[in-house]
Amino acid sequence: MRILLIEDDSLIGDGLKIGLEKLGFNVDWFSDGADGKEALSQAPYDAVILDLGLPGQDGLSILKEWRAAGHKEPVLILTARGDVDQRIIGLNSGADDYLGKPFALMEVQARLNALIRRQNGHIIPTIAYKDISFNPMTRNVSRNGKEIVLSPKELSLLELLLLNKNKVLSKETIENKLYSWDDDVSSNAVEVHIHHLRKKLGKDIVKTINKIGYILGEA
Amino acid sequence: MKKLSLRLRLIIFFTIISCIVWSVAAVLSWKETRENIDEFFDTYQLALGRQLAAADWQNISPESQKITDKIIKNIYNSEDDDDTIGFAVFNLQGQMVFHDNENGKNFAYSPTTGMFSKENIDGDVWRIVRIPSADTKYIVAVGQELDYRDDIVSDMVEEFMLPWLIGLILLLVSIIIMISTEFLPLKKLTQKLKTRNPDDLSPLETTKIPTEILPLIEAMNYLLQQAEAMITRERSFISDSAHELRSPLTALKVQLEIAQMSEDDPQTRASALKKLELGIERSSRLVEQLLALSKIESSFAKQSNVNEVIDWKGTAGQIIEEYMPEAEQKHITITSHLSNEGPAANGNPVLCALLLRNLIDNAVKYSPDNARITVYVQGGKLEVINSETKVNQDILSRLSERFFRPAGQKQAGSGLGLAIAERIARFHNCRLAFENKEEGFSVSLLPL
User: Fold this and answer.
1) Which pLDDT tens digit goes with each residue over A166-181?
2) Closest Cα of chain B to A14: distance in Å?
């Protein structure tokens, strides 16, 4: 899950980036409104966390511009002003959810997962495929009811494949979703993670489509 | 009497004055009537005396006395008016030769004639006059009981003072009613103020208020207006402060959560703890500045009477000295031109030092490396110029707003430094001016 975070407060931005990455998200963090606005078109984000009081350009006008330009990414708004009027204005401007400061990381995680799930058309929190089930909230994976331990990147890869069942994902798409711009990605990183997934979850879990990419399920 | 209401005092005053005036009038008219009555009866007594003196007392027979007695008895029986006049006739030897068979019987003989005298007869006081008869052989005494005169005077005075008394009572009642009605707006106002909600700072009604009280109401309305402005300011300050505290709290919470999650990752944990410490420092600075701001606001309200001579030169020099190490790290040079001709001669030295510190701190913090800062205190003006800084024209006027932080700030700050400086300036009847000059960005403190 790749998340775009636009937050001007250095300690909050830094904390959200590190915290959410520990929870299995890939986070690109911008502290300036104008830069953050442009970033949405540059990478395939699953969700956006947007602070309202931003230097450069304020959050609400960024959101309005995005919606006017046809961006459909779910947006979670963060703000210090938690009054009802502000919430209504935010939600009417195209926000999908609203979180008042101070908040807990776990709440951000839960809301992001709910937003992404809704965006992908899933209502039940657990995603199942054959004998594998995955809970994006607890990030537990089990096969035939037995828990399987996966690394954070393997989890993200599995989640990506499950959410795009029966679709071919190119190596580039997977890299974009799995890594933020701050990460150094080795050329065979995706292959290594696929190899590990097959070892832990069974050989047939992911099929390789030559020269195109990878698929979970039938093409 | 001190606490007696104005209404009651007016009523008591009018009552006493009216009663005194009425009493004086009553006494005067009693005296006047008394004199008139005396004169009237004296004339009557003398007339009767002269008639009796003209009679022929030589040939008076015992029969005449009997006839007279009968006549007088008849008069008595007819219960005619009793004017308590009595008479007696004496010869020069002091023997009573004739009397009215009534009060006159007891009259005493005296050779003195032509004068009225008060005499005691049977326990009553009589006014008696004696006149010699025409042949000078007899003396006629005519007297009247004084009580009778008093009764008549009292009756007369009573008769014409009574309507006045009724008038007086009516007058007093109308005065009480009138005063009470006039005081009704005041009473209503008191009641309204008593039952007023402390939150309700709307102005008091000024219609139907007498012109004498209007200035008072207007003064109160002005006070209410001031109070409302102050409360609004305080409320927005509290609400702004609460919002501003939410961000550092969020930062603390998030960093704490990361530290808790990173038990297996000592590096991340250490970094999170470091940032937690930074966040706590930032929060305490914010709280300190909020406290400073609220202290200035409250001393503003109290018109704090600290009024000492301000040593601009010494204070500025000392603060510049303090910031030297920080400036040197960034290769910033600070030049100063200090005299004691500051923008205010007297004031609160602690607040002025805080103002200077905020301006110099901002200059050092927000200037890029190798910049030049110049501090002037001369000609009734304080000015700090940063050589390399330019502030966007449209945010110049917002710099001293509370919590205002221009876009793209890399330095941590609360947005309160200049707001505090501005409040201190106002406190000393000065103002802060921001300007982009050729030499750089200038902040100056000028007298209003």
Assistant:
1) 888 888 888 888 888 8
2) 9
Q: Which residue has the tokens 């793209």?
A: B408
Provide CB contacts within 8 A for B105, sequence distance 6+: B86, B88, B96, B99
Query: Does pLDDT of B1 surpass 50?
Result: no
User: Using the beta-carbon criterion (under 8 Å), do A56 and B253 form an inter-chain contact?
Assistant: no
ipTM of this complex prediction, to 2 decimal places: 0.71
The per-residue pLDDT of chain B, averaged, comes to 84
Burial tier of B296 (Cβ tally within 10 Å: 0-12, 13-18, 19+)? buried
Q: Are residues B117 and B244 both part of a single domain?
A: no
Residues spanned by the domain of B38: 6-156
Chain B residues whose beta carbon lies within 8 Å of the beta carbon of residue A105? 253-254, 257-258, 261
One domain for residues B327 and B300 = no
pLDDT for A75-86, tens place per residue?
Answer: 999 887 767 787
* Within-domain flag for B186: no
pLDDT at B61 over 90: no
Neighbours of A64 (CB within 10 A): 13
Task: Compute the C-alpha angle B86/B91/B92, nearest 5°.
Answer: 120
Please report residues of A whose CB lies closer than 8 A to that of B282: 11
Q: What is the pLDDT of residue B81?
A: 53
Same domain, residue pair B257 and B315: no
Q: Provide the CATH number for the domain around residue B420.
A: 3.30.565.10
| Any B CB within 8 A of A55 CB | yes
**3-class SS at B165?**
helix
**In this structure, are B259 and B348 located in the same domain?**
no
Q: Assess if residue B188 is contained within a domain.
A: no
How would you write the pLDDT of chain A (219 residues) with one tens digit per residue?
899 999 988 889 999 999 999 888 999 999 888 888 899 988 889 999 998 877 667 788 899 999 999 888 999 998 877 677 878 888 888 899 988 888 989 899 999 989 988 887 766 678 888 888 888 777 888 888 888 888 888 888 898 888 888 888 888 888 888 888 878 778 888 888 999 888 888 888 888 888 888 888 775
Distance from CA of B415 to the nearest CA of A (A): 13
Q: Rounded to the nearest 10 degrees, what angle do helices B417-427 and B349-366 cross at?
A: 150
Task: Give the separation between CA B343 and CA B358, rounded to whole angstroms.
Answer: 16
Chain B residue numbers touching A106 (CB-CB < 8 A): 257
* Residue in A12, A23, A62 to test binding to B, most B beta-carbons within 10 Å: A12
SS3 category, B447: strand
Residue B244 placed within a domain: yes
Higher pLDDT, B78 or B277: B277
Identify from A7, A10, A57 which residue to disrupt to test chain B contact, counting B C-beta atoms within 10 A and taking the largest count.
A10
The tally of domains found in chain B comes to 3
For B279, the 3-state DSSP assignment is helix
Q: Do B23 and B11 fall within a single domain?
A: yes
Is B236 in CB contact (< 8 Å) with chain A? Answer: no
pLDDT the model gives residue B83? 60
Chain A residues closer than 8 Å to B271 by CB: 18
Residues B208 and B264 in one domain: yes
A12 interface with B at CB cutoff 8 Å: yes
> Are residues B138 and B249 both part of a single domain?
no
The domain boundary residue, chosen from B269, B304, B339: B304
pTM comes to 0.57
Q: CA–CA separation, A54 vs A57, rounded Å?
A: 6
For residue A12, list chain B residues with Cβ-Cβ distance below 8 A.
Answer: 247, 250-251, 254
Residue B42 located in a structural domain:
yes
Of A8, A11, A48, the C-alpha closest to A28 is: A48
